[in-house]
Amino acid sequence: MIDKIALSVVICSTDEMASLVEQNPENRTRHGSARSQETPAGVDQTTPAASAEDDVPVADDLPDIVDVVLEMGRAPDVPPAQAPSPALPVVSAPRLPAHLDALADRARDYVEAASSGNTRRAYASDWKHFSSWCRRQGFATLPPDPQAVGLYITALASGSATDTVSGDKKSVATIERRLSALTWNFSQRGQPLDRKDRAIATVMAGIRNKHAAPPRQKEAVLPEDLIAMLETLDRGTLRGLRDRAMLLLGFAGGLRRSEVVGLDVGRDQTEDASGWVEILDKGMLLRLRGKTGWREVEVGRGSSDATCPVVALETWLKLARIAHGPLFRRVTGQGKAVGADRLNDQEVARLVKRTVLAAGVRGDLPEGERGVVFAGHSLRAGLASSAEVDERYVQKQLGHASAEMTRKYQRRRDRFRVNLTKASGL
Fold first, then answer.
1. 245-268, pLDDT tens digit by residue?
2. DSSP letter string, 317-366
3. What gap in Å lies between CA 222 and CA 381, rounded to an integer?
4. pLDDT tens for residues 26-67?
5. Nearest alpha-carbon partner for 388 in 417, 354, 415, 413
6. How far is 182 from 301, CA to CA, in rounded Å?
7. What percentage of the chain's residues is helix, strand, coil (to nearest 5)?
8. Are 275 and 259 a contacting pair, CB within 8 Å?
9. What stretch of H or E contains 288?
């Protein structure tokens, strides 16, 4: 009885296998064995049916059985056109848990604080220029290709990196900055650029040897120039009072333009401040955050109220009604209202250029050239060139690490005070 039941199960299983194989013409064509045909009734299941391949050993039919078993567990093939198209699940980018969102925002703020706003804007502009050049030349921006970068800096040096016909040859310093910007941008995208690759390093060395030139320094605003510039400002307007305070503070403190506009009235008042001011009886103390850390700058009171930076700042703060937040702000409403936002550091450069032209400083130069040789740095260079004190005090005021750097700012210093020719006996 048990043998009969087992035999029935085997027969049913075999029929089911044969049916599955019959449904799959691919298997039927591939193997072409006698077991792929229907078995006539009454034929012994252990004996192969008659076929054209009777001379093939039974063992060769085993792969067919394996395929049949695999087919039993596989869904029937359905043409792609008839297959259902369920909506794919939306795979969202992995993100932090909700309770870490605030921490992530703070981390982004720290990333931005790692470099100055001017540096980030310059790097973004340089990356945009490089990407545009790559598109015009048929290069892919990513991944970084040293040969493409080598050709790009060659185009910058030769003046063929722009669409203009005349071409704009970039200085070595500008090309160095562009290369640093590309290195930073590639690194931020997780694909670092090898600046030591010969396609870049060798080309850059040749550019330095052929095109390197002494840096063009900005003209210094001397005390007599500054007084003439102050006279061009209207003391009866808030804008005039603000501009007077900016010029005098920038000159007397030997400040960079970003340091002038980055000051707050007090400590820890705004997130984007780079320092604050404390007004004392004998002057004011500036605490500034620079590239190498915090430093203090003392600005004493002037010999007269008309040229005193402390008086100018106190007058501006009082009439503008500023007691908290950014020191220098935009004046709106035809000069009668003061905004809440901090001034951009470009305003310092524009102010210097505008007042230099209005006062006729360096009238021996064409107007266009005067607008180029004077800038925000002219105030800083003016203090270094004018202060008749020991050099180390000027170095401390400017925040320089070496006296050699300070000497570069001293435009009218006596370069021949130490005469080695005479000292040698000639």
1. 999 999 999 999 999 999 999 999
2. HHHHT--SSBSSEEEETTTTEEEEEEPPTHHHHHHHHHHHHHHTTTTTS-
3. 9
4. 444 444 443 334 444 433 443 334 343 344 344 444 445 445
5. 413
6. 46
7. 50, 10, 40
8. yes
9. strand 283-290
